[in-house]
Amino acid sequence: MRNRIALLLVAVSVWLAAPSAFFHFELLRSTPANKAALTTPPARLQLWFSQLPAAGVSHLTLTTGQKDVAVSKTVIVTKDKSMYVDPVAPLAPGPYVIHWRGAGDDGHVQSGEIAFSVAAR
Ligand SMILES: [Cu+2]
Predict the structure, then answer these.
(1) How far is the CA of 27 from the centre of ligand 1 (A)?
(2) Which of 81, 91, 102, 119 could form a disulfide with 58 if both were Cys (CB 3.0 to 4.6 A apart)?
(3) How far is Cα 43 from Cα 92, in angstroms, rounded to an integer?
(4) Cis bond leading into 93, ω under 30°?
(5) What span, in angstroms and rounded, lies between the C-alpha atoms of 8 and 14?
(6) How many angstroms separate the CA atoms of 90 and 20, rounded?
(7) pTM confidence score
């Protein structure tokens, strides 16, 4: 009986915790995809999310891993819950990291990284 109650409590707490975990603002996909090895420099870096990125807190930056790389201002696309930046100059061969930061409906700020590389031609 004790074990059954313990099991029930675990089940209930998992169920209660689930919505916040499942309905957070989260990254769904990106172009370039994470770990992509590109043969041509991307003209646009675009990320799609589970919720509309809130203006003000949501943005993208690009680095080589160490140094900042110049990109346009972050543009939020309402109709497909995405945001993007365009590199201001063609990206030289090498490794890159897109750093994203954003929040959706509940205001919890989330962040993450997408790594990709551009091959020498
Ligand atoms: Cu949340």
Answers:
(1) 13
(2) 102
(3) 12
(4) no
(5) 10
(6) 40
(7) 0.81
Distance 51 CA to ligand 1 centre (A): 11
Q: According to the model, what pLDDT value does residue 1 have?
A: 63
By the 10 Å C-beta count (0-12 exposed, 13-18 middle, 19+ buried), 43 is classed as: exposed
3 Cα–ligand 1 center, Å: 32
Tens-of-pLDDT digits for all 121 residues of the chain?
Answer: 667 666 666 665 655 555 555 678 999 999 999 999 999 999 999 999 999 999 999 999 999 989 999 999 999 999 999 999 999 999 999 999 999 999 998 999 999 999 999 999 7
- Identify the three-state secondary structure at position 14: helix
DSSP bridge pairs for 114: 98
- Residue 73, exposed/middle/buried by CB under 10 A (0-12, 13-18, 19+)? exposed
101 CA → ligand 1 middle, Å: 13
Q: How far is the CA of 120 from the centre of ligand 1 (A)?
A: 40
What domains are defined for the chain? 25-118 (2.60.40.1220)
